[in-house]
Task: inverse folding
């Protein structure tokens, strides 16, 4: 039987390899984001995994990018998401992860959405991936 740790590890290995193949080198973390990190990074976490021959879960790939550094009325303003970079990374990851597999683990992108994180006042892209783990 697989656990949610196995699902997270499979997505982690897959993304680490595939992003490097396309020249994107962003730190990838499991479960939680680093404290006070305002750089680009990815966090992978998972919902619970059911039991059976074909196990299913949802894995979140959260792509964090610092907000744009703008000026509004002559004052610094970093309240706007870096829409261009978030769109670029989300598109790359969606294309890499949709309808793919890592061994006996299969991925299908379910959705993506932009989320505001009040704690950091930054935005991130949440890519939700249906994940199936095949027990033989």
Result:
């Amino acid at each position: 039987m697989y656990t949610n740790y196995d699902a997270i590890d499979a997505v982690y290995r897959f993304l680490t390899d595939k992003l490097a193949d396309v020249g994107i080198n962003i730190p990838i973390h499991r479960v939680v984001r680093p404290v006070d990190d305002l750089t680009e990074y990815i966090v992978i976490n998972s919902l619970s995994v059911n039991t059976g021959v074909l196990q299913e879960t949802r894995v979140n790939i959260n792509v964090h990018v610092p907000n744009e550094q703008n000026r509004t009325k002559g004052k610094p303003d970093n309240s706007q998401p870096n829409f261009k970079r978030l769109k670029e990374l989300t598109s790359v990851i969606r294309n890499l992860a949709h309808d793919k597999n890592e061994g006996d683990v299969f991925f299908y992108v379910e959705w993506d959405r932009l989320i505001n994180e009040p704690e950091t006042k930054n935005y991130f892209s949440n890519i939700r991936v249906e994940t199936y783990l095949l027990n033989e």
